[in-house]
Amino acid sequence: MKLKFTKMHGAGNDFVVIDAISQQINFTAAQWQHLGDRRFGVGADQMLVVEKSPAEGVDFRYRIYNADGGEVEQCGNGARAFVKFVTDKGLTSKRAIRVETMSGIIEPRLEDDGRITVDMGAPILTPAAVPFDAANLDSRTEGDDVLWPLEIQGKQVWISVVSMGNPHAVQVVEDSEAAPVLIDGPLIEHHPRFPKRVNAGFMQVLDRHHIKLRVFERGAGETLACGTGACAAVVAGIRRGLLDTPVKVETHGGELSIAWAGGQQPVMMTGPAVTVFEGEIEIAAVGN
Question: Fewer CB within 10 Å: C terminus or N terminus of the chain?
Answer without folding.
Answer: C
